[in-house]
Fold each of these.
Amino acid sequence: MALRDLDDVIGDYTGLAQTVLDYSALMKRMVDEAKEPGFTVDSWGPLAELIDTENFVRVGNFKEVMNWQDYIGFLTGWAGSSEWDCSFKRVTEAGSVAFLELEERSQIGEFSNSVNSVSVYEFNDAGKITRIDVYLQMALPDPELLASYTEVQI
């Protein structure tokens, strides 16, 4: 399957598929902005507009479960020290769920990796994201990468 730049496909979709692509594009922009002075958990407001922040649940790479406040706290720490980018593979929408397949690339210090991801986004009736489940295919991570999870209950 040929990978495509997210910017090249983002205008080709509507509905929930469009929302998950918007989420990914915002994530990229905000991870880049997180290195600037003054970036805090409150800076995730543009992303929060897509989220039902009161009912949000994210189940991550290591089956860790976070609500919205936990998630933006984690993102703030991670994004401040990480580079992240992605390439689009496919998005599929069924009912109130969208499945987004990406190749994600990140770098933390000298450690870099590339993973294949499938994120399953669940939506409420208002079209807000209520849940994200993340599934990855990746090489075994360096133990130093896991240090960023010291405050996360897995």
Amino acid sequence: MAAGEHSGHGALVAPDPEDLPAGAVVTPSGRVSAAQVYADPDVNEHPFTPVQLARLDEALTLATRETGLRFSLYLGDLGDNPPQRVAELHGGLESSGDAVLVAVSPEQRVVEVLTGAEARLRLPDRGAKLAVMSMVASFKEGDLFGGLLSGLRMLADQAGGRRRTR
């Protein structure tokens, strides 16, 4: 007779403890209590902790505030033609002329920095290449978060402080 079924005498029949899975017990009240390992289904979908996300957001904010350029970060697949996809993403940014987009696709092993026309005047290709090399070195060591942080700092340093208007 299965658990919870009534016998012919009106009493509930408790399951045999031998039939229970590991981690399950029958409580004194007759209820089956089972322990299960909790696994967050989203753990593998997010490469950063909430604290790391907050620090990346702060790094983007500080780089933007210090330089007057608009820094953005894209992390994900860039499709079959990464340079074209990066250009599309950059074009979709607000005031793309002073925008700096850092696009990283870890699975494809692609890192691109694309600057708008105004940003390019302050952030030369050589400076962007140095930042990319630094990021790639960190990525090779398995430090995606640290690589992004140091790359953003390097790009902001290369761009220099906010230009003053008179």
Amino acid sequence: MDASLSLPGLSSAASAALPTGGGAASASKVSAKAGADGSPVRKAAEEFESQFMSQMLTQMWQGISTDGYFGGGNGEEMFRGLMLNEYGKQIAKTGGLGIANMVQETMLKMQEV
């Protein structure tokens, strides 16, 4: 499984020096096959990555206490899950870990059979 990360904001010279292992080529194939970003396959892939990221963030934040000068208590505990879901959506929307690209590519391959 190729798990390359895309790094936004790098110059072309800096990104050329990074080992991609075919991840960039497969990502371009996916976008060429999928057409517009609003396709149902792309939307489902981004939703999958969003949920994955939300679950990962939930585990990361589990050990953080909710007490302090400006917050804490039951209110913060109650709304933390909503905040982490939104974080997951934003991470997936801005490129995330590249999971959406791999899921989209796999879904498109499954449709070709």
Amino acid sequence: MSVSVAPKPKLLVVDDEPDMLDFVERVMRRRYDVTRVASADEAMAALDAGDFEVLITDQKMPRMSGLEMLDRIADQHPRLVRILLSGFTDMPDIQRAVERATVHAYVLKPVDSQKLLAAVEHAHRVRDGAPFVPPVD
């Protein structure tokens, strides 16, 4: 008799730094089936091809920032949980993204694994209607 195990939800992580991709994958792989890409263009292609539950993206990337990408995909992927990683507190830009519901949570770099896990849990609640609460350092 075999026991069927529910497939893990799919997570897409976008960052142009391989070390950050490695870190996020290590933190999230127990709970998620992690797909890694190095650019916003690759991320948008992956989103069109697959059914992802969560997107974690870096803000500062070449050619297209994380916020620009989130703005572009918000309408096509309304149920996607969207989390932004930022080394800078681009607060006006991040605040506008929160108000437009293109970002459900953000984590400031350097990223701590517990803060990242907590942000993903919080982002699910925000997507489902809970109020956004900024991270506390």
